[in-house]
Amino acid sequence: MSLVALIDYGSGNLRSAEKALMRAASERGLSKQIVVTADRAVAAKAERIVLPGVGAFADCMSGLQALPGMVEALREAVLDRGVPFLGICVGMQLLAGVGREFGDHAGLGWIAGEVVKLAPTDPSLKIPHMGWNELAIARPHPLFAGLGPGAHAYFVHSYVIRPAAAEHVLATTDYGGPFAAAVGRDNIAGTQFHPEKSQAAGLTLLGNFLEWTP
Fold it and tell me: Which of 18, 89, 114, 129 is catalytic?
């Protein structure tokens, strides 16, 4: 049974993500041990890593850095060994080099770019953006296998990632203008939306992640 580490740094929707991953594994008959952990040793030996995140960029980054050795363990696993990685919401935003929420704050820097405030062109659109929106797949990716045109996902956020390289945008959605709904490169991927709250589409994506071999 292979280990999937769901990183607990005090900033994630852990239980619903854990349940969704377990259900996705069960529906596909996959032998996966989903472990919620704040232990760098567990993250270091995981076959896959999921980093959730809810809240402000700086608070989430500080929470991750507060776990002894965790950032280093994640870097070694993901960047050096190529372990498949999925960031969710702010967990995806932390992939950027800098977050510009309440000042400028350094992120992990695994995907070049910045996190900026969502600025819809329609002033009647409320911030935070909250609800269901259609995904537009920007380029084929194994995570989107089985998600046809018109797939919708659930969003709750006020900031968005703006990758420096267009090829790192995997999917977009529109809320008074397009923004990155999913990003990725190599063995790294992230979603601005919450797959654990996105019903069938989210379970499909999580199942794809559990089977993804970059």
Answer: 89
